[in-house]
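step=encode ok
step=design start
structure_in=
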């Protein structure tokens, strides 16, 4: 009986100590550098925003936050790495619409499920898309661009950073909303796509405002509209696409997701430190200069956004006939 009693006492003590030990380990997070995977090339808009956030997070964590650029397949490559990483908070994804909402709808062979294989942490930021045309395009407004596209079907084309990227789908959404057929020309990233537009190789593109702003102000590109629900303070004279009466709303959004089964204490730590980082004056000023708005949503709010975006882009992909056929 005494042996049984001792075993029962040991089991009871272990049940109390183990959760406390786990909680203690989580409370110490992070105690080494954190890897934040940016599923894009270095120097692009996603990378630039991720690096600003990483700076703020490092200050909050008291640990280095290392940006790991994993470009390719509209973000799928970087997202897959995180989905298969240990759920300890030390490998995170700087996620966006491409890998989290668009690619899984385009390709049934996507090796992860955005809703099942990740723990949403927070939407960190949003940034407007801007509709850009080469100065050689004889359209000074969205209305004139649509009229031109209808008068000359198949002549206009638009660049993107690759099939499945947010700026690709913005072009497809524009086609559907305006009832036009402007041809898609994919490039290996938003930067070479904008370079092609500057050279007049393509007629137009949607892009993030920050990399386009200097060219708009110098007259090398013409901004016809922004894609969100409100005008941007950096180009207050440029209307939204919706102001022309089109059912069109899309912006760039960015957030942090972790591998599924990441402890809630770690998720909350990353989320709360992200909110504090976004509120820091130096980080806020850097983002504002790029027309990027800090958000800092809750995990539930970010998960809801991902679900909504998946439904939205599934409809666009189906309507545009873009679904990839199985090999």
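sequence_out=
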């Amino acid at each position: 009986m005494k042996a049984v009693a001792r075993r029962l006492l040991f089991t009871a003590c272990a049940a109390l100590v183990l959760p406390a030990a786990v909680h203690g380990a989580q409370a110490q997070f992070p105690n080494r550098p954190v890897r934040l995977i940016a599923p894009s090339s270095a120097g692009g808009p996603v990378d630039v925003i991720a690096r600003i956030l990483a700076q703020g997070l490092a200050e909050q964590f008291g640990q280095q936050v290392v940006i790991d650029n994993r470009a390719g397949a509209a973000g799928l490559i970087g997202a897959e790495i995180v989905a298969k990483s240990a759920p300890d908070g030390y490998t995170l994804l700087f996620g966006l619409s491409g890998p989290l909402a668009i690619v899984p709808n385009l390709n049934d062979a996507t090796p992860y499920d955005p809703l099942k294989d990740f723990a949403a942490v927070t939407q960190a930021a949003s940034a407007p898309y801007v509709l850009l045309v080469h100065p050689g395009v004889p359209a000074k407004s969205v209305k004139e661009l649509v009229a031109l596209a209808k008068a000359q079907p198949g002549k206009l084309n638009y660049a993107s950073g690759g099939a499945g990227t947010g700026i690709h789908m913005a072009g497809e959404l524009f086609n559907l909303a305006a009832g036009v057929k402007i041809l898609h020309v994919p490039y290996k990233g938003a930067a070479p796509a904008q370079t092609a537009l500057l050279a007049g190789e393509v007629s137009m593109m949607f892009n993030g405002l920050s990399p386009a702003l200097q060219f708009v102000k110098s007259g090398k590109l013409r901004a016809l509209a922004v894609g969100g629900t409100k005008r941007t303070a950096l180009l207050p004279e440029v209307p939204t696409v919706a102001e022309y009466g089109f059912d069109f709303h899309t912006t760039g959004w960015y957030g942090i997701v972790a591998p599924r089964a990441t402890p809630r204490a770690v998720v909350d730590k990353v989320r709360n430190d992200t909110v504090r980082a976004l509120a820091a004056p130096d980080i806020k000023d850097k983002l504002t200069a790029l027309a990027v708005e800090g958000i800092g949503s809750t995990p539930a709010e970010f998960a809801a956004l991902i679900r909504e975006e998946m439904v939205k882009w599934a409809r666009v992909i189906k309507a545009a006939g873009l679904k990839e056929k199985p090999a």
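step=design ok
step=annotate ok -> Residues 103 and 164 are 5 Å apart (CA to CA).
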